[in-house]
Design brief:
The two termini are 37 Å apart. This protein has 14 helices and nine strands. Helix 7 runs parallel beside helix 13 (368-379), helix 8 (180-191) packs across helix 12 and helix 10 packs parallel to helix 11 (272-285). The chain has a seven-stranded mixed β-sheet with strand order 1-7-6-5-4-2-3, with helices on both faces. Strands 8-9 form a two-stranded antiparallel sheet. The protein has helices spanning 18-22, 30-38, 48-55, 92-97, 111-115, 123-130, 148-162, 180-191, 208-213, 233-249, 272-285, 351-360, 368-379, 381-409; strands at residues 174-177, 197-201, 219-223, 254-260, 288-292, 326-331, 344-348, 412-414, 423-425. The chain folds into three domains: 1-74, no CATH class; 92-122 and 386-429, no CATH class; 137-379, 3-Layer(aba) Sandwich (Aspartate Aminotransferase, domain 2). The protein is of the alpha/beta class.
Length: 434
């Protein structure tokens, strides 16, 4: 039987193991393990001397569609749309290291080491507060799957106090799961069917494909927006329209639009007029609008020209969109630096959606101690206000530190005023594509 040709590393296009590592790559990543499982005759470690010759091997495409270390899981149609081709070429870190004269003291390679000397850590204050919360025996037993009345009421009260809502939220408008990822997985179950899609503007957080696709086989389709056009009402709607037409031409239904506000990775807030335009678009097509607002309080002042945060729940939907089509995600991972609590919330006035949510949330139930700690965090408004103020100062200081360094090196970036991001442009630092 003919020996199978080894597969190239999915990340770098090179042969695995030593060759990958020499390229600053993936070490013992899954493609490398797969290579040696399928090809016992291939050495587990390729020497540097072998690397040049190894790259010349002509590889045949494999017929296997998906391999998992544990068992085979066939891909669903549209579950994970192919990522756009990366035209950058070599890994960014390699390109930067190859031009050290452009890097004063190599600061761009590991800026976090410099920031450690200046930062004001905020997670210890969360830990200190959690230590004061009384955990009664009942929190260690089975509890309500969707978070219980106390936490849901605390979240509703928190959003009423901070998001400037057009109408107050009640406890029945909130459901809780084990993180925002769990909320998105449940939304895929409740709002879409396998093969249907969610429309998102770009650039965007890259893991939504997994959140919506891994279990339910729901695809993600990307509107062709840029860091500039995604915040402009006419242009973002124009690209949304084009994306919906394209999906219809291939027989696929777009069920929802998802935005992240403030944006991940741009660190900017959607202007109110843009949110209204997106809501009108969703109302016209009768599709759901899911607004991920987990960075809603992580706002800081960097420029008077950039709009502050506006929640879609602060906009009266009358005459714009059916309020049952508008949903918000919230949680503690970002604004409260507490991703380890694993808590995410769905906020919606759609009772049917909550019923569907409750039918499957038992697979994503939050932990009792996390629920107790989170409820106390939302209820103690003195601690809450002090923490959010401290967090904003810390984020603003980190932003100033990073952007000052980028300006000194002549690296372009998108100005931000929210979230934890600085979206940089390193294209001029890299060699031209091959």
């Amino acid at each position: 039987m003919d020996a199978k040709r080894p597969q190239r590393c999915a990340k770098h296009g090179l042969l695995p193991c030593a060759v990958c590592r020499s390229a600053g790559g993936c070490s013992s990543a899954a493609p490398c393990r797969l290579l040696h499982q399928q090809n016992p005759q291939v050495p587990a470690i390729l020497s540097q001397d072998d690397s040049k010759a190894a790259r010349q091997i002509q590889l045949k495409p494999t017929s296997q569609t998906h391999t998992n270390d544990f068992h085979h899981i066939p891909q669903r149609r549209n579950a994970l749309p192919p990522r756009r081709k990366n035209r950058i070429g070599p890994p960014t870190a390699m390109a930067l290291r190859s031009r050290p004269n452009l890097l004063p003291n190599h600061q761009l390679i590991r800026p976090h080491l410099l920031w450690q000397r200046k930062q004001r850590p905020i997670q210890p204050s969360v830990a200190a507060f959690a230590g004061t919360v009384e955990l009664t025996p009942d929190v260690f037993g089975y509890s309500y799957s969707s978070g219980g009345v106390r936490l849901r009421a605390a979240i509703a009260g928190h959003l009423n106090a901070t998001f400037h809502l057009y109408a107050s939220l009640e406890v029945e408008h909130v459901r809780v799961a084990a993180g925002a990822t769990a909320v998105q997985c449940i939304l895929a179950f409740a709002l879409e069917s396998p093969g249907e899609t969610v429309l998102v503007p770009t650039p965007v957080y890259g893991r939504f494909e997994l959140d919506f696709g891994n279990v339910m086989g729901v695809g993600v389709v990307y509107a062709d927006t840029t860091p500039e056009t995604c915040f402009l009402p006419d242009m973002v709607v124009e690209e949304f329209e084009a994306a919906v037409r394209k999906e219809r031409e291939r027989g696929v239904r777009v069920r929802a639009v998802m935005i992240v506000n403030p944006s991940n990775p741009l660190g900017r807030c959607y202007p109110r007029e843009t949110l209204v335009a997106i809501m009108r678009f969703c109302g016209r097509y009768k599709i759901h609008l899911d607004s991920d607002e987990v960075y809603g309080l992580s706002e800081f002042r960097s420029s008077d020209e950039m709009p502050g945060f506006t929640s879609v729940l602060s906009i009266d939907p009358e005459g714009i969109i059916d309020p049952y089509l508008v949903h918000v995600e919230y949680g503690l991972a970002k604004d409260f630096a507490s991703s380890g609590l694993r808590l995410g919330a769905l906020v919606s006035r759609n009772a049917a959606l909550h019923e569907a949510f409750s039918s499957v949330v038992r697979f994503h139930s939050p932990a009792g101690p996390s629920v107790a700690i989170a409820a106390a965090m939302f209820e103690d408004r003195v601690w809450h206000d002090a923490f959010i103020a401290s967090s904003r100062r810390s984020i603003a200081g980190a932003y100033e530190f990073v952007t000052t360094m980028l300006r000194e090196m002549g690296v372009g970036f998108v100005e931000a005023n929210a979230g934890l991001f600085v979206y940089v442009d390193l294209s001029s630092w890299l060699p031209p594509p091959e």
